[in-house]
Write a structure and sequence with these properties.
Layout lengths: L11 H4 L3 H12 L9 E5 L5 H9 L4 E6 L2 H10 L4 E4 L11 E7 L8 H10 L1 E12 L5 H11 L1 H7 L11 H8 L5 E13 L2 H9 L4 H6 L3 H18 L8 E13 L1
Parallel strand pairs: 1-2, 1-4, 2-3, 4-5
Antiparallel strand pairs: 5-7, 6-7
Length: about 260
């Protein structure tokens, strides 16, 4: 994950409260990769290592490396999976001379800008006959993403949070296809909405607090402001995600996947 040095670090414990829901896209992506017995794999933006374990489970004989520039996330991964290789770094420092059979990234590169440079860079470290596999949350296409942008644009908040509006980067599938088509032998692309059943509307707020909401909260000066901003977001959640039977809430989550073979 990409993290500005002036902001607080990520919270692995909060992130893993929804471990099963966050890991399912990794499972779906990993098992769509048509590569046999890869020697070397790298997980870009590995977080606390939950997605990395899916790679290890499918290819137990491979050398799998997890990379993230969050100290807290890497320390959590090292604690939970000490036998594996973890690197505290970011994509700017990737050694372009080291090649991997599988370059993998699940819900991470949306925190990194300039995908027109990033995607070719990641594909460059993919071996011939290897694959690059990426999943991106389409957060701005969802009601919750649109609501946060609208709240941030209000005069109450815009002087604090305007910078956060540009921290979330993704494009449509045609953008990534155009970047990869000239140098790929095959590209698989698909979109999926995961309809999560949560226990309350507050659970949606808790879900996004450790990810998409974090850049906005980091811009605010104190806990009272953070709480007030969260209350504004919760009001929008209640409008867009009504209670279902037994008090449950359905939270559809849109994601874009692509696997490019070299």
């Amino acid at each position: 994950m990409n993290l500005d040095k002036n902001n607080s670090d990520w919270n692995p414990q909060l992130y893993l409260k929804f471990k099963n829901e966050r890991t399912q896209p990794s499972i779906d992506l990993v098992y769509r990769i048509n590569i046999n017995n890869p020697e070397k794999i790298i997980d870009i933006g590995c977080g606390p290592g939950n997605s990395t374990q899916i790679l290890c489970q499918r290819w137990p004989d491979s050398c799998v490396t997890g990379l993230d520039n969050s100290h807290a996330m890497i320390e959590k991964a090292k604690t939970d999976y000490p036998e594996q290789k973890w690197i505290l770094s970011d994509t700017d420092n990737l050694d372009q001379k080291i090649k991997y059979d599988v370059v993998f990234s699940n819900a991470a590169i949306q925190w990194i800008p300039e995908h027109e440079k990033l995607i070719p860079s990641l594909f460059n470290i993919t071996k011939i006959n290897g694959a690059m596999a990426i999943q991106l949350p389409k957060f701005r296409d969802m009601p919750i993403g649109k609501s946060i942008e609208q709240i941030s644009a209000k005069s109450r908040w815009n002087c604090y949070t305007s910078e956060a509006d540009d921290l979330f980067t993704y494009h449509d599938y045609s953008f990534y296809y155009e970047l990869l088509a000239e140098h790929s032998v095959k590209i698989d692309m698909w979109e999926t909405s995961y309809i999560h059943t949560l226990d309350s509307q507050e659970a949606i707020l808790e879900w996004i607090r450790s990810t998409a909401l974090k850049p906005y909260l980091d811009c605010l000066e104190n806990n009272d402001m953070k709480h007030e901003f969260e209350e504004d977001v919760l009001d929008e959640i209640k409008k867009n995600y009504p209670l279902q039977k037994k008090g449950k809430v359905l939270f559809p989550f849109k994601r874009l996947f692509f696997v490019a073979y070299k």
